[in-house]
Amino acid sequence: MRRRAGPTISTAPTAPFPLLGQTASSNYNGQEATAALQASAKLNMSGLTVLPAIGMVYAHAAQNSASESGAPGFDLNVNSNSANSLRPFAAITAAKTFTTDGGTVITPEADISYSYETLGTTPPSTVSVGGGTFLISGLLPQRNNLTIGGGVTAQLTDVLALEAAYHITPPTGNNLAQTISLGLDYRF
């Protein structure tokens, strides 16, 4: 089981109003906690490595309320907000290793995963300004998420490897997630 307690995030954002010579500012903080559990098995099939996995990821995020000051009539008041997520998932990765004439070991891989949100979706934030109140809806993660991707690792020496990967979660709501990662792995 992997568990990570995220940092408490404190910030003091400002919103300048140059024409009025005023700046609205506030202080607030937020917390994040995550935990994950995964079971997997490594299978070798005629030189192809297949890694099926199942598990779940839990996340909790909370933000305290914030009240700006410094720009009367323009100061925002934001209510506290929190969200919980519990996503069971299933994934499979397939990889094959090749060795070049120069001794570089190259391993391309492809993977696909599916997760389902079992808890509620993120509630909107309530914001007040100048006597009016309105709701702000942020990203609305969908219950069903399918992620597809792949990458390649080039093991140049016993201690040095280069890695590149791309993953996409196609749009299923009002968000689209794409991840490009490049890495250099050096072992002492």
Per-chain topology:
Elements: E1 2-5, E2 9-11, E3 14-17, E4 22-25, E5 28-40, E6 43-45, E7 48-63, E8 66-67, E9 76-78, E10 81-96, E11 98-99, E12 105-116, E13 125-129, E14 132-136, E15 144-155, E16 160-169, E17 177-186
Antiparallel strand pairs: 1-5, 2-5, 3-4, 5-7, 6-7, 7-10, 8-9, 9-13, 10-12, 11-12, 12-15, 13-14, 15-16, 16-17
Give an account of the 3D structure.
A hairpin with a 5-residue loop joins strand 11 (98-99) and strand 12 (105-116). The protein has 188 residues and is mainly beta. Strands 1, 2, 5, 6, 7, 10, 11, 12, 15, 16 and 17 form an 11-stranded antiparallel beta sheet that branches. Strands 8-9-13-14 form a 4-stranded antiparallel beta sheet, with no helix packed on it. The protein is built from no helices and 17 strands. The two termini are 27 Å apart. Helices cover 0% and strands 66% of the residues. It has strands spanning 2-5, 9-11, 14-17, 22-25, 28-40, 43-45, 48-63, 66-67, 76-78, 81-96, 98-99, 105-116, 125-129, 132-136, 144-155, 160-169, 177-186.
